Amino acid sequence: MTKQQTGPRMGPGAAPGQRHTRPAARHRSAYPYALYLPAAVVYLVIFLVPTVTAFYFALTRWTLFDSTFVGLDNFRDFLAEQNLRIGFANTIVYAVVTSGLKVVLGLLLGVLLTSRLRLRGFLRSVVFFPVLVSTVAVGITFSALLRPDTGLVNKALALAGIDGPDWLGDANTALLSVAAVDVWKGVGLATVIYIAGIMSIPRDYYQAVAVDGGTAWHRFRHVTLPLSWPATYSVIILSFIGGLRSFDLIWTMTRGGPGFTSDTIASIIYKQYQAGFFGLSTAGNVLLFIIVTAIVLPLNYVLGKRQVAV
Amino acid sequence: MKTSHRTIATAVAVLAMTALTSCGSSSEPAADGTVTLSFMTGSDQSTVDTSKALANAFMKANPSIKIDMEHQPGGSEGDNIVKTRLSTGEMTDVFWYNSGSLLQALNPAQTLVDLTGDPVLTNVQQDYLPVVTQGGKVYGVPATTLTGGGILYNRKVYDKLGLEVPKTWDAFMANNEKIKAAGIAPVISTFKDTWTSQLFVLADFYNVQAAVPSFAQDYTAGKVKYATTPAAQGGFQHLADVHAKDYLSKGFGSATLDQGLKMLVEGKGAHYAMLSGLLPPLLATYPQTATDVGFLGVPSSDPAKHGATVWEPPAIYIAKTTEHLDAAKKFLAFVASPAGTEAVTAAVRPSGPYRIKGSKLPDDAIQVAKDLQVYIDKGATSPALEFLSPIKGPSLEQITVAVGSGLTPPAEGAAQYDKDVEKQAKQLGLAGW
C-alpha cells in the first residue's frame, strides 16, 4: 500500500508537478471534448436514441411494420390491465422481502465471515458463488429441485416426515419460493458489501468496547451495526431496485403463474410484448421507469440523510 | 392519422439485429446451377421431423435445389422473430408459420408472395383456403395434417374399468368418478406449460357453435361476449368442474406437457384435454401410443350434437424478399401434392387427415387419427375459433390456469377473457370496439 503514495508514474516524459509553459488554455477545451466523442456516439446510439424512441412508441399502436399514433391510449389501457394491481402488490412484496432478507442475512454472514474462522476464505467463496451463476440457470435448476414429487427439496422434507407443498405450482407459495431463491442467489453480493463495510470499521472502537467490559453482543449492537450503515444503505438500494424490476427469475420459475398470482410489473410488460402489443408494452416500460424512480429517489434521499447523521 | 414508420422501425430493428444475426446468406446460384433455398421452420419435434421429410424428398426429386433449414423457437417468442425478420427484410425464402388468426399479424399484403390462382394451389382442398387468405388473397399451402383438439384418453384404462366413451359432460364426469376410485388420475393437467390449460375452452368451440351458430362473426364484430353467452362460458365451467371434484393429476400446477403426455400413454392418467398432433413424436419411445390413446370431442350437454373441434394445419409461405421465387414455388407445389404428403407419412405417422386432394390416411394410422376421421366423415367438426376470427386474447392461458386451479370462478374468468379480447381487438385496430 505504501507504494501508491508516490503516485503513478508512467513512461518517460514530464514528471508530475513539472509545469508546462505552453499557453494551453485555448487548446485544452477542444482536446478533451474530441476524446469524449467515441464514447458519446456509443452512448447516443445505444442509450439515448432507444430511450427517446421508446417514449415516442409508447404513444403509438405499433406492430413493427407500421405504427399509428394513439396518444395516451396505451397508458390508459396498461393502467386498466386487470392484473396490474396484483402485479404491483407482488412487485412491492417481492422487493421488500428480498431486500429485507438480503440485509439481515448479508449482515449476519458478513459478521461471521470477518471473524477468525479457519475456513474463512473458502466459506466466502461458497457464499459468493451463486452470484456468478446465470439467473436463468438458477431458475431452471430450482424449478427441478422444487418439483412436488421428484424434487430434492420435497424428498428431503419427506425424510423428516413432512409432506411438502407444490412450491411453484401453488398460488400461496409461488411468489415466496421465487423470492427465497432470489435471496439465495443475491445474498453473496450483500455479504461482500458487508464484509468490506465491517473491515473498514477501525479496530479502536472494538478495543474501547473491550476496555469497558462489553460482550460480543455489545460489539455487534453498538459498533458493527451502526458503523456498517453505509454498507446497509448500498445493499438496500441495490437489492430494492433489483427487486422492483425483477423478471428473469420469476419468468423462468413460474412465468407469473399459477394464473396471475406471481405476476410482477415486469412480467406483465413482457407478456404484452409477447402478445405483439409493442406500443402497449413500451408504455408499460415507461411507467415502470417512472415508478422505480418515484420510489427509489425518496428512499435514496431518506437513507442518505441518515448516513450523514451517523 | 396512420403514418408508416417503417424507416424508423427498420433502423432501430436493424441496429438491434445486426449485432445478433449473421447476414451471410449465400443467395447467388452456384457455378453448377444449384440454387439454395433457406427454410425457417419450428423447433418442436413433430414440426422438425415433418420439415426434414419434406426437404429431403424435395431435394431428391430436384437435385439442382438445395434446402437449408433453420429453426425458430415456438410460441410468442417465435412470432416476434418472424415479425422482426419480415419487417427488416431478413426473412428466409420460405417459412413455416401458423394459419388463421396469427397470419393477420404478419401483414401479408406487404411481406408475403401472393399465390392466388397459382398452380401451386392445384391440390389444396378448398376448405383450407380461408385460413391462409387475407383480403381475398391466398398466401400459403398446408404443411402438415389436420389436428383434433379435444380429450385424449387412455383406452387401456377404459377397457380395464369397462367404461364407455362419453357423449355428454355428465357421462364424462361419471367416468372420472370411477377412474378416481380405481386410483388413477382422472384428468391430467399441466399448468407449468400454461398454454396446455386452454384446451377445455378452445376445444369446446364445436359446442359453442352448435348452440350459437353465428358466434364467430358476432364475436369478431364485438357483439357477443364469452361472459354473456352461456354456451361459451361452458369451457370455463368445465375447467372449474374438474378442479372442484378434485379430479386433477397430482402436482398439476408445476407439471409440464411432456410429463402429461407420458402419464397419459403409461395409463397413470386417463383423460388429457390436448391436441392430437402432439402424439406422433412419442411413438419412438412409446410405440403403444398408436393403439392405446384415443380421441373424443369435448362432450356437451346434448348427446345428439356431439362433435369435435379441429385445428387447421399450419402453412408454408414465401417471403416477398426471396430471390429464388421459382424454386420456392416448386417447393410449395411439392409440399401441396400427394407426393409431398407421402414423404411426410413415411417419416411421421399422421395424427389426422391431410388437406391435400388425393391424399389418404394410411391403413396403419394411429388411433387418434382414425377417431378424428370418424368425426370428419360424419361432418361433425368445426374449426377452432382462432381460424374463424382474428381475435384471440393473449392472456387466455393464464386465465384458464387460474380457473383450472380454483383461484378464479368460471364466470369471472370469462369476464376477464372478454376484457383481454377487447384489448387485443383495439390493438389490432378492428372496427366496432
UniProtKB/TrEMBL annotation, chain A:
This is Carbohydrate ABC transporter membrane protein 1 (CUT1 family). InterPro entries: ABC_transporter_permease, MetI-like, MetI-like_sf. The keyword Transmembrane helix applies. One of its GO terms (biological process) is transmembrane transport. It is a multi-pass membrane protein. Residues 1-23 are annotated as: Disordered. It comes from Nonomuraea polychroma. GO terms for cellular component: plasma membrane. The chain crosses the membrane at residues 35-59, 92-114, 126-146, 183-202, 223-244, 286-303. It is found in: Cell membrane. Residues 88-299 form the ABC transmembrane type-1 domain. SUPFAM superfamilies: MetI-like. Gene3D superfamilies: MetI-like. It comes from the Bacteria.
TrEMBL record, chain B:
It comes from the Bacteria. Residues 1-30 form the signal peptide. Keywords: Signal, Transport. Pfam families: SBP_bac_1. Belongs to the bacterial solute-binding protein 1 family. This is Carbohydrate ABC transporter substrate-binding protein (CUT1 family). It comes from Nonomuraea polychroma.
